[in-house]
Amino acid sequence: MKKIIVTATALVAAASFALTGCSSERGGGGTEPGAGEETTGFEEGATIGVALPDKTSENWVLAGKLFEEGLADAGFKADVQYAPASNTVAEQQNQIQAMVTGGAKVIIIGAKDGKQLSTQVQAAKDAGAYVIAYDRLIENTEAVDYYVAFDNFKVGQLQGQALLDGLAERAGHEAPYNIELFSGSPDDANSAVFFNGAMDVLQPKIDDGMLKVVSGQTEIAQTATEGWKAENAQRRMDSILTSSYGSAELDGVLSPNDTLARAIITSVQQAGKKVPVVTGQDSEVESVKSIMEGVQYSTINKDTQLLVEQSIKMVGQLQKGEEVDVNDTEQYDNGVKVVPAYLLDPVIVTKENAAEAYQNVPSLLEIVKSYQ
Ligand code: BGC
């Protein structure tokens, strides 16, 4: 059940090409996916840049540490930088530019704003470096070579299905169910993909009346959470409860990640209402505890260790001039090219399957066991 994922910018680009009657040429000429592309290799021990966004969830904090260790173990010099929480876009642009100037051979980027890095990734390309988009796609540029991520559309589908399962288990009454929808930050290309994946499951149930979005806010722009910030999600939940709920119960909330899930739960609790079924993502420690306590309903396990290992494996293949492993050459159109991707499989986690889901993540398994 794979779907072609076309980012919003790709759709705009496609629309404008259709309008100008130009459908085959895409501005810069377009390259085919790089699976099987020849790579030339570079010296052992080279510097590898890793530019990560601000630390909006635990996975980003962990990724930096794992890249430092993993790249060093693989014999590279790691230059890992985080963009600070303020002025993030400009700082990340500067950091990437400095990595190019410093001679990094591969630059791995977790983009703060995937639409605002074209100049820097082009500079990397011009300097002969490879660019790997990590977790978040980099848009509107030919200069991104590979994408490594968990299957974001599937993450959304799993969240949508978990919401339905949770409602059947916990709402305590038959349908229709009152729900609200949240999505991530509009500057993160993943946000729309998560949301579209979830709506792939939920929209038919909204259409047939099983789910009622009481606020009426179903457009992604209405559901967005600027900067993936907890306070923004909490404020929006507060205001929806005040304006749309009165004495009505809220049965479920689609939350795109754990940080926002906890903020939504706090808002509902402060309003004195029963905690609804709330989804999440990232397997953050506080959310895993909340799930085991029967509060948050679900999260997603996207094992950061595996994602970092896959990225470092790509770096090793590039260094040796080998063919780079990719397993998807169709889904991630960044507006000017389909970026060859290696997608890992996300796993849904509820109280019921937590022990099994975290069997390879000792720190989380220990938490789960402490509740059993
Ligand atoms: C990541 C999520 C994360 C979010 C906020 C997304 O790009 O894929 O795992 O929750 O950013 O940090």
What would you say this structure looks like, in words?
This protein starts with a strand and ends with a helix. It is built from 13 helices and 14 strands. It is α/β, with parallel strands linked by helices and 372 residues long. It has a six-stranded parallel sheet, sandwiched between helices. A four-stranded parallel sheet has the order 8-7-9-10, sandwiched between helices. α9 links the parallel β9 and β10. The chain folds into two domains: 190 residues, Rossmann fold; 173 residues, Rossmann fold, CATH 3.40.50.2300. 49% of the residues are buried. α2 packs parallel to α11, α3 runs parallel beside α4 and α5 packs across α6. The protein is elongated, with a radius of gyration of 21 Å. Beta-D-glucopyranose (BGC) binds next to α2.
Q: Which tags fit this structure?
A:
Rossmann fold; 372 residues; alpha/beta; 4-stranded parallel beta sheet; 13 helices; binds beta-D-glucopyranose
